[in-house]
Amino acid sequence: MSDKSLKVVLLGCGSVGSQVVRLLTEQAADLEARVGARIELAGVAVRRLDAAREVEVPAGLLTTDAAGLVARGDIDLVIEVIGGLEPARSLILSALENGASVVTANKALLAEDGPRLFEAAAKAERDLYYEAAVAGAIPIVRPLRESLAGDRVTRVMGIVNGTTNFILDKMDSSGAGFSEALEEAQELGYAEADPTADVEGFDAAAKAAILASLAFHSRVTAADVHREGISEVTAADVASAREMGAVVKLLAIAELREDRVAVRVHPAMIPRSHPLASVRGAYNAVFVESQAAGQLMFYGPGAGGSPTASAILGDLVTVARNRLSNTTGAGESAYADRAVQPMGETHTRYHVAIDVEDRAGVLSAVAQAFAEHEVSIQTVRQEGRGADAQLVVVSHRATDAQLAATVEQLRTMEIVREVTSVMRVEGESE
Ligand SMILES: NC(=O)c1ccc[n+]([C@@H]2O[C@H](COP(=O)([O-])OP(=O)(O)OC[C@H]3O[C@@H](n4cnc5c(N)ncnc54)[C@H](OP(=O)(O)O)[C@@H]3O)[C@@H](O)[C@H]2O)c1
């Protein structure tokens, strides 16, 4: 037994918080040995004292006074798992001001207001750790912040939202439409009753901002991320991807382009041979490309109370050790101060499906529209459908602006009945 102890306060005891309490209790002896001090749970703040909990919280620890808890002045470590912007932000700032180090899983807050929190941590000479904020249990913050700190990361591409990956995987494996797959995800507990944050890409965009900031040593917030969700992805898009040996995934992509940072979240087709294509169900993965190390992939459960609590406890051990040795770990690294590239300048390949009249000259007229905007065509597939036909065009790399202008022109053409689908194609070497 160690004669030292560190006081820990937990803010929030829901899906994640309850598993943090469980691990703190079950692994108390190991944690003490690893840290070199006893980790003493000094308080658990919740909204409702009488709510049913997945774990038994030791008597007398539950309180609704989160602000009072973090301002006590004798707290060494605060774990924030309330989520959302407020009161989480004020509580974290208060915890730091009152001398505690902070571990949080709050991606929404970090992506919105990270710089302010990191500045507060630096000023207070305390740690602010957040491994659990991106891709749950998967170690990705630490690899980017520490293991790859001597390398030059050029691209991070991730499947960082389990709900959308489950839905797209279902659409791919069963031919289901979006609504049907979403319903199944909700029945199985993979999607919330209000699935907006997941299916419209807000959750992935927050994680993309955090990943981009870490990878490119710059401040990137959620507002810098181009975001498109998956609610418009159709069974036909998924089938079309399959025909070209690809699969549709919601990707969070952060790239270094001419010393600017390009960050986006959108559905895209990737070849089935790409490592990210094999990420099934609600799993997450982050694929990192760097100059010296080459390609790395980090894979695992991206959510869930217990996996997320594992990442939190990992941070807790590091932060606790730092407290004991009166030091802090790596803080924010934003020295590069890179600008964000506008989405219109982003280069990628595109898959465009167009319903056209089935008559002579249509193909060349469509090809002409692409050529006018300097979008060169890699392949065209044509299927006849009575008086109509469908053309599926896959382009070489072009900018988003060039492609948008091409599609706009196609929509005005008499021979074009409808542009039925426009989707980016990612994951092939440039
Ligand atoms: N769930 C996951 O799989 C997962 C994965 C990665 C990251 N995260 C992140 O982890 C955080 C927590 O997520 P969660 O799923 O555990 O959420 P949750 O189940 O909704 O739990 C939230 C907890 O916060 C408490 N709370 C809410 N408002 C409060 C207030 N004003 N003062 C004190 N306590 C308050 C709630 O109290 P009551 O219980 O009394 O209502 C509840 O215990 C979020 O930032 C989330 O993004 C979650």
- Give the strand content: 25-35%
Shape summary: elongated
How many domains make up the 3D coordinates?
Answer: 3
| CATH topology label of the largest domain | Dihydrodipicolinate Reductase, domain 2
Report the sheet with the most strands, covering strand number, pairing sense and barrel closure.
11 strands, mixed
Residue share in helices?
A: 25-40%
- Give the C-alpha Rg: 24 Å
Q: How many β-strands, per DSSP?
A: 17
The CATH class designation of the largest domain is: Alpha Beta
Average pLDDT, rounded to a whole number, is 96
- Please give the CATH architecture of the largest domain: 2-Layer Sandwich
Name a few traits of the molecule.
430 residues; alpha/beta; Rossmann fold; Dihydrodipicolinate Reductase, domain 2; Alpha-Beta Plaits; 3 domains; 11-stranded mixed beta sheet; 6-stranded parallel beta sheet; 36% helix; elongated; binds NADP nicotinamide-adenine-dinucleotide phosphate
In brief:
Helices cover 36% and strands 27% of the residues.
Q: What report would you give on this structure?
A:
By secondary structure, the chain is of the alpha/beta class. It has helices at residues 15-26, 28-35, 66-70, 88-97, 107-124, 141-147, 162-174, 178-187, 196-199, 202-216, 235-243, 305-324, 362-372, 400-412; strands at 5-11, 38-45, 62-63, 77-80, 101-104, 128-129, 153-159, 226-227, 246-257, 260-271, 283-290, 294-301, 347-357, 377-385, 388-395, 398-399, 416-425. Helices cover 36% and strands 27% of the residues. Helix 1 crosses helix 12, helix 4 (88-97) runs parallel beside helix 5 and helix 5 (107-124) packs parallel to helix 10. The chain is elongated and about 85 Å long. Bound molecules: NADP nicotinamide-adenine-dinucleotide phosphate. NADP nicotinamide-adenine-dinucleotide phosphate binds next to helix 1.
